[in-house]
Design brief:
Elements: H1 9-12, E1 16-21, H2 25-36, E2 41-47, H3 50-60, E3 64-67, H4 76-83, E4 91-96, H5 101-109, E5 114-117, H6 122-137, H7 149-152, H8 164-174, H9 179-186, H10 190-204, H11 209-219, H12 224-228
Parallel strand pairs: 1-2, 1-3, 3-4, 4-5
Helix pairs in contact: 3-4, 8-10, 8-11, 9-10
Keywords: DNA-binding, Phosphoprotein
GO molecular function: DNA binding
Protein name: Response regulator containing a CheY-like receiver domain and an HTH DNA-binding domain
């Protein structure tokens, strides 16, 4: 810390203890080296899968967890949910290559304290870690969240003409699920799914699933992360 910085409550009681959860060893090492320059931040645990992340956080009880969205295992959303049930509860900072505003809202809404793209600067990373630690120590438990301005400035275009149910069906269709699979997943009849898909095509001006998927992705109605990682399914590794 330099003499011009405002003292941080977390630093005042000692170093901020951080766990880094990312399946790329070189990235974890780079994060450790970057945080080491801050002086008041210490990486106390690492994990390469979602299950490992939950286990090491439960064991080491860090102040802050840096969590990648695309690790093998149960999925980052479920891992975050389990970590936030621990006592003492860590604060979660999402660090990912996905910067879609839709995902930002999703993970912030589920309890993340900050959301950073992997292109973030050292200053942004350290600020997010310190801020998350302050939230953890705050009696009120909330001091807002950190999201880089470039994400905030990127308009999150909504499919205003589509209902929530239609967006849900469109997402599952984009994942390659059949009408029967979508019906079983959402507890609907196949006829209802077919009717919803016909309505979707008419509303957005397309004639097929592939066209609907391409338009939904290009317009930001659904994200590539959501399409590639259905909830509860880990990423396979070759």
């Amino acid at each position: 810390m330099n003499g011009q910085e405002t003292p941080r409550p977390a630093a005042a009681r000692g170093r901020v203890r951080v766990a880094v959860a990312d399946d790329h060893a070189l990235f974890r090492q780079g994060i450790k080296e970057m945080l080491a320059t801050a002086g008041d931040v210490e990486v106390v645990a690492e994990a390469a899968t979602c299950e490992q992340a939950v286990a090491v956080v439960s064991k080491t009880k860090p102040d802050v967890v840096l969590l990648d969205l695309e690790m093998p295992g149960m999925g980052a959303e479920e891992a975050m949910r389990r970590m936030l049930q621990l006592s003492p509860r860590p604060r979660i900072v999402i660090v990912t290559m996905h910067d879609e505003p839709r995902l930002v809202r999703r993970f912030i809404g589920r309890g993340a304290s900050a959301y950073l793209p992997k292109s973030a600067s050292l200053t942004e990373l350290v600020e997010a870690v310190r801020h998350a630690a302050e939230i953890r120590e705050s009696p009120q438990g909330e001091k807002g969240v950190i999201v880089p301005q470039e994400i905030m400035d990127n308009p999150d275009r909504q499919a205003d003409s589509l209902s929530g149910r239609e967006l849900e069906i469109l997402l599952q269709a984009a994942r390659g699920m059949s009408n029967r699979q979508i019906a079983n997943s959402l507890h609907l009849s196949e006829a209802t799914v077919k009717r919803h898909l016909a309505n979707i095509y008419a509303k957005i001006g397309v004639g097929s699933r592939s066209e609907a998927t391409q338009k939904a992705l290009s317009e930001g109605w659904i994200s590539s992360f959501e399409v590639s990682r259905p909830e509860g399914r880990g990423r396979s590794r070759s």
